[in-house]
Amino acid sequence: MEAAPQGEAVSRLSSHVSRTNIFDFDRASLEAFFEQELGEKKFRAHQVMKWIHHRHVTEFADMTDLGKALRAKLEGRAVVHAPQVVFDKASADGTHKWLLGMDPKNAIETVYIPDKGRGTLCVSSQVGCALNCQFCSTATQGFNRNLSTAEIIGQVWVAARHLGNVPHQQRKLTNVVMMGMGEPLANFDNVVRAMSIMRDDLGYGLANKRVTLSTAGMVPMIDKLGEVSDVSLAVSLHAPFDELRSELVPLNRKYPIAELMEACVRYALRKRGTSVTFEYTLMKDVNDQPEHARGLVKLLREFDRRVQMKDAAKVNLIPFNPFPGTRFARPTDEAIRAFQKQLNNAGMIAPVRRTRGDDIDAACGQLKGQVMDRTRRSAEFRKRLQAPGARDAAA
Ligand code: SF4
C-alpha cells in the first residue's frame, strides 16, 4: 500500500465533521477516521470498505456485522455518497458508457470495455481538461475542476455494481485505465488515493500493473508518481518530433520530448521489468507518414537502450476517432497498416487499438460529459465554429 495522505483526509474531515463521504478515504485514511474520529478499532474500517466496494452497500443500516451503536454513530458523522447516474448506454459491441452527475452543473463520462478475458474501465479524473490537446473531444469542452477521490472511485463503484463485480470471485472488472476526461497528474493526490483503493484487497483488488495512469507528459509529476505508486504508466505521445507534438499536445512546449522521455526512463528504472506504453493517435496526413514511423522507432529504441530492456517501450496505435467540429481525419486502413508494418519491420510490437463503442460516442478521445467551462475556452471555440471556414475552427 502506498502512503496515504492521512493528515489531509482527516483535516478535510474535521472541517466537515457533520457528514463526510466515506468514498473519499482509502484504507489508511479510513482507519485513521475510525480510530481518531470515532474511537473505534481499525478492523471496523475494513468491514465498512468491504460492504461498500465488495457488496455495493451504501446504507450503514444494512451493514449488519456492525453493532447498532456504531451504525448510529456512522449515520451521524458520515455518508456513502456515490455519483448520480444521469444515463447509461450500451453499445452493440458490449461497451457501456455512463454519464455521471458530479454536481448540479457538471457531469463526466466513464466507459467499460469488455474484451476476451478482461474488462477495462476507463475512468475520468477531471471535469473537462485544461490541456487543450488538439485532437481531443474533451478539450473542446474546456475545464471546470478536479474530481475528488470519492468522485473518481465512485465511477469504479457504479460500474462494479452494474456488472455484479466481486473482487477475487466474480471478476468482471479486471483493469482500470485513468484515460477518461482530464489529465490525472494534474489532480495528483485525489487520483493516487483513488488508485490505492482500486489496488487494495478491501477495495477492488487489482494488481498494480492492471491500473494504468495515462498522462500527456507532466514531467515533474511522473517523478512524483514514481515515488508513491507502482501503477502502469502510459504516455500520450502522438508525435516523435517537438514541433509537431507542440502543435498537437500544447503541454509539449513546457516539457519537450527529450525531458519527457528522461522522466519515462526514470520511471521504468525504479523497478526492473517495468515497461511504459506510448499512445500514438494516428491522424491522416498529420503524423501517419513514413518519417513519423521512423522517428518513433528511433525514439523508442533509445528508450529501450536506456532502460536496458527489450520492448520496454510499448506502442499503442489508436486510429483517430472523429468528433463534430474536428479538423482531423482518420487515416485509411491501408495507411494504418503501412504505419504499423514499418514499426513491426523495425522489430517493435505495435498493436492497433480496435475502436470500441463508437455507436455511443464512447471511443477513445470522444468523451465529453457536460462541463460548465470556467476557462471560457469552450465559448471561444463555439464562436470560432460559427465563423466562416468553420471546418478548421478547432485549429
Ligand atoms: S487528450 Fe487527455 S490531456 Fe489532452 S486534452 Fe484530452 S483529456 Fe486532456
UniProtKB/TrEMBL annotation:
Enumerate the cofactors the protein uses.
[4Fe-4S] cluster
CDD domains, per this entry? Radical_SAM
Which positions fall inside the Radical SAM core domain?
A: 115-359
Any keyword Nucleus?
no
**Pfam families (alphabetical):** Radical_SAM, RlmN_N
Provide this UniProt record's keywords sorted from A to Z: 4Fe-4S, Cytoplasm, Disulfide bond, Iron, Iron-sulfur, Metal-binding, Methyltransferase, rRNA processing, S-adenosyl-L-methionine, Transferase, tRNA processing
- Keyword Methyltransferase belongs to the record: yes
What would be an example GO MF term here?
Answer: metal ion binding
| Localization per record | Cytoplasm
Matching entries from Gene3D superfamilies are given as: 1.10.150.530, Aldolase class I (3.20.20.70)
What name goes with this protein?
Answer: Dual-specificity RNA methyltransferase RlmN
Residues reported to bind [4Fe-4S] cluster: C129, C133, C136
Q: What class of enzyme is it?
A: transferase
Where are the active-site residues found? Answer: E109, C364
What is the additional note?
Reaction proceeds by a ping-pong mechanism involving intermediate methylation of a conserved cysteine residue.
One GO term describing the cellular component: cytoplasm
Source organism superkingdom: Bacteria
By sequence similarity, the record places it as follows: Belongs to the radical SAM superfamily. RlmN family.
Which GO BP terms, alphabetically? rRNA base methylation; tRNA methylation
Give coiled-coil spans as residue ranges. none
Q: What does the UniProt function comment say about this protein?
A: Specifically methylates position 2 of adenine 2503 in 23S rRNA and position 2 of adenine 37 in tRNAs. m2A2503 modification seems to play a crucial role in the proofreading step occurring at the peptidyl transferase center and thus would serve to optimize ribosomal fidelity.
